[in-house]
Amino acid sequence: MDVLRSIALFVLAALLEIGGAWLVWQGVREHRGLAWIGAGVIALGLYGFAATLQPEAQFGRVLAAYGGVFVAGSLLWAAVVDGYRPDRFDVAGALVCLVGVGIVMYAPRPS
């Protein structure tokens, strides 16, 4: 059950961080205004909080593993929201990152 909770928290963290960064980008680069920037800043703050809810106690391990989720999530966000079409190298790299997440977070360790 901890693994499912952890995965759900990684997905939530990715939505908050990537979505927050996208909102700031839209506010600044696309001149959509302060409301977009403010919403992005709030989402980014919530991302920081979501990471603390991971069942794993080691900050470094959680953040290292999250890096792989961020890579895959960013490509997925770009495909869904911005119409970006990842090529085979994007997909291969994202899969390698997700394998890394699995090893770092969920490999059996001695107690």
Q: Characteristics of this structure?
A:
4 helices, flat, mainly alpha, 111 residues, 79% helix
Description:
With 111 residues, the protein is mainly alpha-helical. It has one domain (2-106). Helices cover 79% and strands 0% of the residues. The protein contains 4 helices and no strands. It has helices spanning 2-29, 34-51, 59-81, 88-106. The chain is flat and about 50 Å long. The relative contact order is 0.14. The mean pLDDT is 96. This is UPF0060 membrane protein Krad_3114. Its main location: membrane.
DSSP strand content: under 5%
Mean of all residue-level pLDDT scores: 96
What is the overall shape? flat
- Largest sheet geometry: none
Oligomer: single chain
Number of DSSP strand runs: 0
Helix content bin: over 70%
Q: What's the gyration radius in Å? A: 15 Å
Low-confidence residue ranges: none
Main location: membrane
Transmembrane segments: 7-27, 33-53, 62-82, 88-108
Protein name: UPF0060 membrane protein Krad_3114
Keywords: Cell membrane, Membrane, Transmembrane, Transmembrane helix
